[in-house]
Automatic annotation (TrEMBL):
InterPro entries registered for this protein in UniProt: DCD_C, DCD_N, dUTPase-like_sf, dUTPase_trimeric
Protein name as catalogued: dCTP deaminase
EC assignment: 3.5.4.13
PANTHER family per record: DCTP DEAMINASE
């Protein structure tokens, strides 16, 4: 198998050969073109604080020390804002020696400002699973803006499997952009192994540039689509002056990239963390972009990247066109059988500024 990110059929093969195990049958749409959705188990543990198990220590040992309360999820349960929960996942791993994995929140999870991180036994960092790992997976969940309802099988996180060195270098990325047009920018800013993305603060014809999450709202059921009214949870933000936005500390914003993005079928992409030296704010919880995102035959003509933005400590002024992140591209080990977009009836193909699927 060539080095790269494992596509859908190779993820299925891992299931068939015991590399991925689950306590119940897979959901029909659980395997994505370049990732696997992870499902919550039957119980959540409210813990005093986030933690890592550390080398040689299983997660359950730390749960025995730090758990404050056990919550049965089987009938659905509310997870409150400002609290930290650990949930054993239905999926566990017995990875081959040459396959490693990395996790990230799903797009809808990030757009709800739900902070999630995957842990494995012996982990010294979040969201990374070493090659050859055998053991359970756990999800740390901390709702930041809205309380949420979850149940067994709810899917908040996703995991990718890799072999070898999949990331494109700067020269390879420039050559791919020359062939495939990866961004709509007239002059693509390629450096540091990624393509720069900037923020759109001009907005649409009505001047809408984004949304700010409201406080003290009702709950969002993560498994129900189009169940909530936008204005009950979000304050629309319209263009101000020449295109500036003051980010208030600890407020949550949904914005959108100025550029449209294209991920060709033989590649996948990921938004890298923004350099804190350039501004004290975080952009984009959910970093995975599947093969076919913004790809014309898959129902897209370039799709803009939705940006989940939070300022820290001090107010920060964003300006239209300011760089807010970089998109790193990686090779697929093989072409996926289905692409993001029309093949999967994907929620965010050909998107502009768009809230999560839970709002109508």
């Amino acid at each position: 198998m060539a080095g790269g990110i494992l596509p859908d059929r190779e993820i299925q093969h891992l299931f068939d050969t015991g590399g991925i195990r689950a306590e119940r049958a897979l959901d029909a749409d659980q395997i994505q073109p370049a990732s696997l959705d992870l499902r919550l188990g039957t119980v959540a543990y409210r813990v005093r604080a986030s933690f890592l198990p550390g080398r040689g220590h299983p997660v359950v040992d730390k749960l025995a020390r730090f758990s404050m309360h056990e919550i049965d999820l089987k009938g659905g349960a509310v997870l409150e804002t400002g609290c930290v929960y650990i949930v054993p996942l239905l999926e566990s791993l017995a990875l081959p020696g040459d396959v490693r994995a990395a996790a990230n929140p799903k797009s809808s999870t990030g757009r709800l400002d739900i902070f999630t991180r995957v842990m494995s036994d012996g982990a010294q960092e979040f969201d990374k699973v070493p090659a050859g790992y055998r053991g359970p997976l756990f999800l740390e969940i901390s709702p930041r803006t809205f309380p949420i309802v979850v149940r067994p099988g709810s899917r908040l996180s996703q995991i990718r499997f890799r072999t070898g060195d999949a990331q494109l270098g700067e020269a390879e990325l420039a050559a791919l952009h020359e062939r495939e047009r990866l961004t709509s920018a007239a002059d693509a800013n390629i450096s540091g192994g990624g393509i720069a993305l900037s923020v759109d603060l001009v907005g649409d014809g009505a001047g809408l540039v984004g949304y700010r999450g409201k406080r003290h709202t009702g709950v969002v059921d993560v498994d129900r689509r189009a169940a909530q009214t936008v204005l009950d949870f979000w304050e629309p933000i319209h263009r101000a002056g020449a295109g500036e936005l003051v980010l208030d500390p600890d407020e949550f914003y949904i914005l959108v990239s100025h550029e449209a993005v294209h991920v060709p079928p033989a590649f996948a992409a990921e938004m890298t963390p923004f350099d804190p030296l350039v501004g004290e704010f975080r952009v984009h919880y959910a970093g995975f972009f599947d093969p076919g995102f913004g790809h014309s035959p898959a129902g897209g003509s370039g799709s803009r990247a939705v940006l989940e933005v939070r300022s820290h400590d001090v107010p920060f002024i964003l300006e239209h066109g300011q760089i807010v992140g970089r998109l790193v591209y990686e090779r697929m080990a093989a072409l996926p059988e289905r692409l993001y977009g029309t093949d999967l009836n994907s929620n965010y193909q050909a998107q502009g500024l768009k809230l999560s699927k839970h709002f109508r």
